[in-house]
Amino acid sequence: MRLPRQLPRFSAAEMLFSAKCFGAAMLAMAVASWAGLPRPFWALMTTYIVANPLAGAVRSKAVFRLLGTLLGCAATLLLVPALVDAPELLTLALALWVALCLFVSLLDRTPRSYLFMLAGYSAALIGFPSVGAPLGVFDTASARVQEIAIGIVCGTLVHSLVWPVGMAPTLVGLVDRTLADAAAWLRGMVQPAPSAAVGRQAARRKLAGDISQLRVMATHVPFDTSHLKWTASAVRALQHEVAALTPFASAVDDRLQALRDADGRLPADVERTVGEVLARLADNGRTAPGTAPAPLPDAERAALHAAARSLGDTTPHADAWTQALRTGLAVRLEALIDAWAACVRLRQQIDAGLAGRPVPLSAAAGRSGPAAREVLHRDVGMAAWSALAAALAICLCSAFWILTGWPGGAAMAMMAAVFCSFFAGMDDPAPSIYAFLKVLLLSLPLAALYVLVLMPLVVDLTTLALVCAPAFLVLGVYLGRPATFMKAMALLLSGVIGTLSLHDTGQADFASFLNAMIGQVLGVAAAAVVTALVRSVSADWGARRIQRMTWRELGRLPRQADDAQARLHAARVLDRIGLLAPRIAQAGGTVDGVNADDALVDLRIGTDLHALRRHAALLPGRLGPDILAQVARLFREHPAGLTTGQAAQDRPALADGIDQALRALLPTEAAASPAAQVEDRRALLAALVGLRRNLYPTRPWTAAPSTTEEAFA
Length: 713
Fold this sequence. Notes:
single chain; mainly alpha; elongated
């Protein structure tokens, strides 16, 4: 017997969100109608565009949308009057403006990118309908700005004042999940079982995604309605500290694996000491949800440092390579302890800020870090290619409009601009645009019902609310769900409200409705076709491109290395790891020459190169600069399809040079009486061990000088 399908269930939070969206929409409609604006549905539509379950996201999006609208309006007022007598040049100018704004927006992967994207297609939304009536372009632009501003203000007021939902639980939950994923990675490092290795791999990938998500979400923090906005500096500092922690944790994991491979198991003292240190750090991060972990007392932190340092003490019967591995492990473990302590301290400062207490950033916990715009991966080439595809789609739609003289051609060009911009951040935007087009077609009967049947019956705001409530309240619930957001937006914004905003609803007829809807459908279809032919790339191609950009950056690092660049590089590679994982999964789980774990190798290499550059003067002759030059050449000439370890196999002279440098440093205290110089030698040794492991993981250690001793000469 077939059971009846259950009715959808809506949570109280989802229903409240939908009710607030509807209330803001009706308020905006009332204000715009009272002001006598020609298309009040633009104000109504804007309230839904800026809507978000989190009040802080609504406020930030409102600011970005208002600024973007003003910028797009200014561009329209400059272009349309100047080029109205040459429609071909005007459409080309509008297409190039959309392309320029889209290019800039794709280079800023934070929510701020919405400002630039909107500045582009707002000019298209205002400019193309004004081509037929250029004398009224100022009135049209002014009306659009006023309508959008009313929608922004009404939406922001309602979501900020009526049971506002702060970002604190969501963001604090993400912070705690980030620390928990880091703790899970640490906890599994000393476990040799294959299942533990799989768990560590999953935790590493989750951590990279957490960091990127946290960095993007933090853009909204200064706009939040709670005390969270006072913790913005602590949240930014925490992002940088977790990013800085990752290469140290990865290096510890790798050094443990190297010691395990040498003897089949970890030495007993290493397993005991590292296990105790990592367990203490992991337990320190294990707290109740929403509760900050307690900071490590100074005495306990010093004890953990002493335990880590003891791993590098000279061990009887240990060969030089094992001793180097142990020293490298000790140095990276000490750095991991400090980075973890800084993360915990910053997590406590976030709690203090939420409680309304001051958030002072100490020098240890709040080290300066790069801004999000410098950290997040940027692909200038793909941004330019996406901009070109958008300009081409707009020009083709405009050419069809000009040649045919079709009244609905303006809507076609407008939709091409919107949809080429909206999905440009994807590797292959075409499937998403086609899915949006399918939902848009399904919404046509509902749009026709509203425009042709129901709206002519509306006589006041009360009847408008009664007419709109059934569809708007139900679709508003789905608009607040991430899983159904795109479909709900297509039905509500592009289908119903979008159609209403294109018409003077008091004088709408079947012919104007049909022209507008055909224009919308053809514009979306044109965006999909042009994108598929010109711009779409596969997930594996995108993954390889991201990996190649990391290699090119590593090829430049030896000439640019310093402390600030080290933190910048670590954060950017982590962001790329977060981008690689879904692309590899989409490509079937494997991409030739690309692996998310290989990106961790590149991350460790970057950290080691920075340390080598800082301390290269401690090596004899030009050995340090020569190693740096060889590594730079390796990455500049890195062949596609090979991992870094495979590419290095054809450069045995580099391995011999690293071995020569290691022999010059062992033991680390040799000829080094000042304590500072001892620490510098230990840091340099750890960097060289890291390079040796990352570039030549299977090559035997050269215990004695060879005939290639002067390989760099």
